[in-house]
Specification:
Distance between the termini: 132 Å
Largest sheet: 6 strands, mixed
Number of strands: 18
Radius of gyration: 31 Å
Structural class: mainly beta
Length: about 300
Amino acid sequence: MCDVMSAFILLVMFVAFNGLQALQITQLSVPRWIENGTQESVTLDCVYNLTDKDDHLVVKWFHNDDPKPIYQWIPELGSRLVSEKLQGHTDMNSTIVPSTNFTEYRSLRILKPTTQLSGKYSCHVTSFNGLDTAEKEMTIYAPAKFLRFNYTKSTSNRAKFGCEVGRVYPVPDVDVFQTSPGATEHTVITDTETEVVEQEDSYKVSVSYEIEDSELSPDGATRFDCFVNFPGTNYQRLSSINYYPGGAVRTQANAQRLDAHPDVAVGNHQSPDGSSSISSCFGLILLNATLLFVGINGLFMRQF
């Protein structure tokens, strides 16, 4: 019994020792999210451990499920290859500092990354002594060029809302919330219909739903929010409508983008607090001034 136990312990120690000595990727550095057009370059790095037995080393990078590597480096041959997909997008002078002859060109520096280069990146390191692989996702997102949120009255007691996000990549999360008058918490509208249309290298996402006026509080405006975001990033966009149930069509809407990109396309609506827009106020002032001028001029003419 003692001999069996000793043999088992020796076997475990042998496997553990060889596992420590084997070629191993210790870290894969791939950024998760990048905004399109904001980075001059991005570096993908594959850190690995080597032993004296790891000769004939080959480092390969793959994109998505393409069986052909997008980048390959064989240190002992001084060979480096880049696929057509990365032609013009790779810095061949990029090196690791500090480095050795077997780590110098292990990384992949992509120049001016675009949405087409989004996807899964995997690093494969092989030698005569072993192999190891690791993979991570990188998404290069494109902010929406416009966000439109409005409604139409299908009947006097029914309204159809539509939120449209255009020229965006990838498909974002689009959620619609409802807040009753005087309430501080909102509820998520779940019975929405979503349509996604692919447009070249981007998408258009449309979310629609219908509301019965009788389902809403008659005490004031119910606020509806269309919220767009990429989970895991600070990219957010919001558009809101204050909807008054009843026969009269009274719309109050505003839109804002919660990040730093000023490309929101928003129509002219009343402000959320119920005050008129500047253009409406200016028109009213101009009308009153015109009527006043006509009245004074008429009075002046009657005196003569």
